[in-house]
Request: fold
Amino acid sequence: MILVNKEFMPNSVTWGNYFIQLVFLASIIGAILGIFSLLYFIRKKEQMKGSDDELLAPWHTTKGEVQIS
Reply:
């Protein structure tokens, strides 16, 4: 895919410049996905708060048994 994509670009683009642009694009996409992930987990944490503002444990133990909810 990289070779095909590079061949459709103008001839003035060198391999070095192409890979630099590709790394910049990948880092921007990664940063955007990281921000979306952060927002998702912040919202998830807010949803898990109980009525007394303590986090509810997703698991609890009874009589030596662990139950995951």
